[in-house]
Amino acid sequence: MDALNKTLEGAGAVATWSLDDLCKKISKVPPKIRTAVRRTAGQHWNHSLFWTQMGPNRGGEPRGKLAEIIDRHFKSFAKFKDEFKQAATQLFGSGWVWLARGPRKTYEIVPLPDEENPMMHGMHAVLVLDVWEHAYYLQYQNRRADYVDEWWNVVNWDEVGKRI
Prior knowledge:
The protein is built from 8 helices and 3 strands; from the N terminus they run αααααβββααα. By secondary structure, it is of the alpha+beta class. Strands 2-1-3 form a 3-stranded antiparallel beta sheet, with helices on both faces.
């Protein structure tokens, strides 16, 4: 957050925007600082959401409206997990994989590079997985697929359900 605050020094009204607004309105940030704001605001926002969506003794399957949405848009939770894993393992380099809601209330799996998030593309973030190497390398080395498989065991579906 310090890096973001430093970047925003002297940025006028943009410096008063919330973290959400910095991500949502990234195209309106002055070009001179846009890349630095995208990187620092994006990483801060993405990590903040990521950590709230996990916990001990979690995992299992989503329930309620979230389960209905997944079934409607992906046919089943098993197919959703397969598609999500495919997106996570095929994302080149570092980034994030999202379940996001588009402007037309459709849900899709969105792999995004580096610090990008769905808000930067006019979408609403529902679920996120960090696929930067620092998230898994110490335990899984180059086995990103194994990391994704294990991550499902800690997803806090109650928190994710609050974002639908």
